Each structure stands twice: as C-alpha cells, then as structure tokens.
Amino acid sequence: MTAEFFQYTLNFKRPGGTSRGVLHTKETYFLEITENGRKGTGECGLFRGLSYDDTPDYEEKLKWLCENINADSAILKEKLKHFPSIWFGYEQAVLNLKYGDDLYFPSEFTGGKSSVKINGLIWMGDAEFMQEQIEDKLKEGFDCIKLKIGTDWDSEKKILKKLREKFPKKDLELRVDANGGFSLEEAKTVLKELAELEIHSIEQPIKAGKTEQMKALCAETPTPIALDEELIGIIDFDTKKELLEKIKPQYIILKPSLIGGFSGSDEWISLAENLSIGWWITSALESNIGLNAIAQYTFTKNPKIPQGLGTGGLFTNNFETLLDLKGDQLSIKKA
Asked: Could you say which DSSP state residue 326 is in?
C-alpha cells in the first residue's frame, strides 16, 4: 500500500456564526491509500481552535502515517491516539479501499432503501437572520431544530419564545447549543428559562473542563444537558468511563472527527448506553466526503432520535455527493 495526503480549504457560502466567532473558511485534509490499482479516501476533519489535534506538527504526523501506512493498525492507532482526526481519516480510507466507490458501511442506507432523520441547524446572527433560517427549515419539513445560542441570550430567548408560542412541544422539538458560552451562574438561569419553553436539551452550557461545575448542573438541571466539547481530548477508555460516571449527563454528542473516529464513537456509545445516557451523532463541518462516511456509520448505530448531520450545502466548493435531503430525511440517491 502507498498513501498520500493533501490539504483543502472549504469556503462558506455565508459566514457561519458561533459563540467562538464567525467562520468564513474551514480547513480540512484528505488521506488517499492506494493498493493494487484501488484507492480509498478518508477525510481528516481538523477543526482549527477546537480539535484536540490542532497542533503545529499536524502535517508532520500525516506525513509519518503515509510513510508507515503498511504498519499494523494497532501500532498506528497507538501512535495516532493524540491525533483523532487523522486516525478517523485512516479508518475511512481503509474502509473505502475495501468497499470501493463511495462506500464505507454498506447497508440499506447506502442501497438507497432507508434514511436517517436529522435536525435542522440554525446559525447565530441577528434576530432577523435567525428567524429567516427557522422559517426556511420549517417549510422544508423539519420538526426538530437546533439553534446556536450564547452571544445575545435576551434576543435568542425571544426567538425561542415566539417559536414555542407558535409551535407546541408535540409539533416542534427545539434543541440549543451554547458551545460553552455561559458562565455557571448564567447557565443556572438559562436552564430554568429553557425548561419553561420546553426545550429538549442544551449542548455544553459552560466551557469544557469545569467538571465539578458541570456535574452540579447536570444533577439539578430542569433542562437536559448534552456534553459536546467536554468529550474532546479524552482518549483512554477508563478516563471516558470516569468522566461519564462523574458528571452523569443526560446526553452526549459524538463528533467522530473530534473524538477518534468510528472506534472512538463506538466506545462512547457503549459507555453511555451502559449508564442510560442518551446520545446522538453530529458532523463537524466536514466536506461531503467525511459527511458521507459519518452518515453511513450513523445509520448502522440504529439511531432512535434525530441526528445532527450536516447537509454539505454550506460551502461553495464542496465535492459532489450522492447524499440527498428530502425534508428532514437524509438518504443516498440510487446511482
């Protein structure tokens, strides 16, 4: 086998607002493995400022992988354990090499016979922009919407209140994602106000790493809390187990590019289910190549609730894809 990698910059159609700032571009990398005339492609979805492996030697580690591509996978996994997005790209490329075409996990989903239900994502912005996005998602047929919050809570709360007045809980599930945007005291107030609006859950109300504070919030919250950034950089299985047993969140959010790919996600799901913690899988601004792999994997996990998969429509220079979204159902078009 031989391998090579290349860097690629995705350009947003419209700047994406988060509590960390406004995104205009998204850098990513691709790993290609070749063997006997066949090629497997995987996306190493580095997320600058968020990924555990956002380090100066990232490309050096990719180069090392390419030079050692024929080493035993257990050895590679150990060497790459602090580079979860690179390991994820390797996992994808190996599966794609095995199955060919755009396949990673052959199933009824890849055969065009089934689909995955997703939530509609609303980006941060002024009230008018957020309202415009919400109206579009509702017209498209979404009954589960996730809003980014944490920059102007008073305005965001008004939007949520208007939505709930128009659409009761039974007709519209509302999720919010704070990306760690609130202080502990702010979070306590926000959690109460969200409960009054019958919000499904809030992702990462406070910054990651404040374990005792998060534990206290999860123990008393009237609104279910989902850990997101809290999982990033937690590598060892026993440490993952300790974290979930200590904080006892209501949900965890799994971003394969940030938590060690399919194998890393499998570990978190196994632990969560043993502790009766809910979960869903979310993409992290990957191109259509990584998104396709994540969608195929997600289907195999038999998800029970709407997943947080993107649609690939955010970028002006994305790759062609067979992924197809009708209403809130993500599927693969029959070739």
From this structure: E
